[in-house]
Structure formats: C-alpha cells, structure tokens
Specification:
By secondary structure, the protein is an alpha+beta fold. It contains 14 helices and 8 strands. A hairpin with an 8-residue loop joins strand 7 and strand 8.
Length: 339
C-alpha cells in the first residue's frame, strides 16, 4: 500500500525539492535535517524516515499522516508537506527557532509563577484542541515544548506531535513513553484516554515551579511505584514561596484516578490559569538552579546545538553555515547522500 497516498508528493530524490543544510537531530528510526525549499527558499525541519522502518505499518502511517495534516493550531508545530522517494518518507515540519523550554527559563533573568501559568495555558489550549479532535498526544514532556521564535514574546509550541505514533505503528507500549511523565493507568496497562495528557501537563507544571520532577528514582520499579500511588511532595524550601492555588492546580492534574482528573477545559478554568492567583514573585534563581542540577544537559541537549544555531539565524540574520562555525567551531556535516 502506498504511503500517505492522498497527500504525499512522489519524488526520485529529495534534493530535487530541498537544499539539505544541517542535521538537527535523530530519533530511533529517523533523522531531522534543516532544509530549504528550492522554490520558496522557505526553511523547514525535514524528518527523513526510511521506508524499511515502516514496513508492515503502511496503513497506520497513512491514517496518522491524514490526521497530522488536519491539525492547525497556533501552539502546535504543523506538518507542511509530505514527500515519498523510492527509499524514504519525508515530513516537512514547520521550523521553530526559539529553542527548548528549559534553556529559555535558565537564560531568563526573571521568572515567576505567572510566566509558568501562561506557558501551561498555551499547552492546555493546544491539547484541548487535540482532544476535541479525538487525538491523545501520549508523550507530552518539556523536551517537546519549543519556542516559536527567539524573542521574548514568543509563543510555546508542541513539537514532534504524532511522529512517535508513526514510528511505533500507533501501538504505544509503556516503554515508548518517558517514564517520569507516564500516567498510572498507562503503567497498569489499563485502557486509557485523554486524561494521560492531563497527567503529563501536571508533571510539567510541577517542574516549571520548582525545577525538579515530582516522581524520581534511579530504580525504575521504585519510580513506577511512586507514580502508581501518585506519591509526591511539595518540599520545603522549594515550594515555600509557591501559591496555594498553584499547588491546588497540580493536585487536580496529578490525580491518581483518571476520571477524577480535570479535563483540559476544566483546567483552563482554574483560577491559577485564568484568574489572578499566580504570583509574580521572582523564582528564577531557585528554579533555574534545580533545572540545571536535575536535568543533565546531555539528556535534553543535542550534541550539535541545533536550537541555539537556529535562534541565532533568526536573531542575527546570518547564514546557517557561518553561524554554525561561530557557535561550535564546525558546522554539522553535509549528509545529502543519505537522502
């Protein structure tokens, strides 16, 4: 069965449509490169998936791509084009240049509960949109939250939406998720639904207010026990200056029973999100220190610092190759032959 037959464009060689610039990152089955469309000179993040990785999953892939093409939301990275060559499937994704969530928090000189609340409101709005379309994300985590631009007023974007589902054929085993963000019902292998995303947003909200995760243990089985019991604390001194309203919001998202958890719609109505209960006290020092301590840079930074590189392109208007050299001493190798 042809892949994405209704929306894909056939091409013998991807280099006919794009100039491949730099490698941005790699997943288990694919690589993402910075590419410039030859006709429009528009930059995209091009995800290159070998067809052999998708063998036997063509029908699922076709359905997922159809869904991805329907998604239009200001806080979700969009799928702009699909190409199919004899050997690869190529997904041209909207390019975001503002960098990763944790990076931006650390770089700020000032950061408050209100900032965290505004971030989470954007994530809730995007996930509510998905839920209204009958889509469950299933892998929300800080690494998937990127800023659209390097500028201070940038919106936050959910990236990599749906791509993990394409790669694993739509069957999300618990092991495919990120353990610290997985809801109890997923660990129990019970039927699950939209509430798993609300749980993950609860975990992200917790981290944004203290800089460390609510559930953590070097031993996976102990970590899973904590999650299964919804066992977490608002530890002193890190939570001493955080509002009761923020803690109440998190309690309603990290609710053990999925049916008792707030929906996205309900969460958007919580006073910490839509009211004025989020404090404007500066918590930057404590939160950024904890993020750096608890989220080792190697876990959430690429070896080639692609997001920094892209932010500089946007801010300075310099060429990709020049900026890469200035940033890291060398540009990522040209790897056109692979695609």
């Amino acid at each position: 069965m042809p892949l994405g037959k209704n929306v894909k464009k056939k091409i013998e060689d991807i280099n006919m449509a794009y100039n491949i610039k730099e490698k941005l990152g790699a997943g288990a089955f694919s690589e993402v490169v910075l590419a410039q469309e030859k006709n429009s000179e528009r930059l995209v993040a091009l995800k290159c998936i070998p067809k052999k990785a998708l063998r036997g999953k063509e029908a699922v892939v076709e359905n997922e791509i159809a869904v991805l093409k329907k998604i239009t939301h200001k806080n979700i990275v969009s799928l702009e084009d699909i190409y199919e060559s004899p050997t690869h499937l190529y997904l041209a994704m909207e390019l975001v240049t503002g960098g990763e969530l944790f990076d931006r928090i650390i770089e700020r000189g000032y950061y408050t509960e209100k900032d965290a609340s505004q971030l989470i409101r954007q994530v809730l709005d995007a996930v509510q949109y998905l839920h209204n379309m009958g889509i469950v994300h299933r892998d929300l985590k800080p690494e998937n939250l990127l800023y659209a631009t390097p500028f201070e007023d940038s919106k936050i974007m959910i990236s990599d939406f749906g791509l993990s589902k394409i790669e694993d054929g739509g069957m999300m085993a618990t092991a495919c998720g990120t353990p610290g963000y997985v809801a109890p019902e997923l660990l129990e292998q019970k039927p699950y639904g939209k509430a798993v995303d609300v749980w993950a947003i609860g975990v992200i909200s917790y981290i944004l207010l203290c800089g460390y995760p609510p559930f953590y243990d070097e031993n996976d089985s102990e970590l899973f026990n904590q999650i299964l019991k919804a066992e977490y604390e608002f530890d002193s001194p890190y939570w001493d200056d955080i509002s009761e309203s923020a803690k109440d919001f998190i309690r309603h998202l990290l609710e053990r029973e999925p049916e008792k958890r707030l929906t996205c719609e309900q969460a958007l109505q919580h006073p910490w999100i839509c009211g004025d209960t989020a404090l404007e006290r500066d918590i930057h020092g404590s939160v950024s220190e904890q993020i750096q301590k608890n989220f080792a840079r190697t876990q959430w930074k690429r070896a080639f610092n692609a997001t920094s590189f892209l932010r500089h392109i946007t801010k300075m208007g310099q060429s990709a190759d020049t900026e890469a050299v200035e940033n890291h001493g060398e540009a990522a190798p040209q790897e056109k032959d692979k695609w």
